[in-house]
Amino acid sequence: MGESYTIADPYLFTMTRWLEGDGVDVARFPKVHDHMRRMLERPAVQRAIAGDA
After folding, report:
1. In angstroms, rounded to a whole number, what is the distance separating the alpha carbons of residues 39 and 29?
2. From CA 35, how far away is CA 4, in angstroms rounded?
3. In degrees to the nearest 10, what's the CA dihedral of 3, 14, 47, 7?
4. Among 22, 26, 37, 53, which is disulfide-ready with 48 (CB 3.0 to 4.6 Å)?
5. Inter-CA distances, 46 with 28, 29, 31, 41, 49, Å
6. What pTM value is reported for the model?
């Protein structure tokens, strides 16, 4: 999620959530963790996670 949002951003977010589900501590990877945090701030992501998409 540099200056432009690309298809890579939701893909990395999905992979990161899978890692968490597999017990991987994503905080060990600061850039990936920061990306996940920024993605979670997006209203569309919040709606999708809540099932309201």
Report:
1. 15
2. 13
3. 40
4. 53
5. 24, 22, 20, 7, 5
6. 0.82
- Count other Cβ atoms within 10 Å, centred on residue 20: 12
Contact status, residue 39 vs residue 45, Cβ threshold 8 Å: yes
**Residue 13 in contact with residue 45, Cβ under 8 Å?**
yes
Q: Residue 5 — φ and ψ, nearest 5°?
A: -80, 130
Say how far apart CA 12 and CA 2 lie, in whole Å.
13
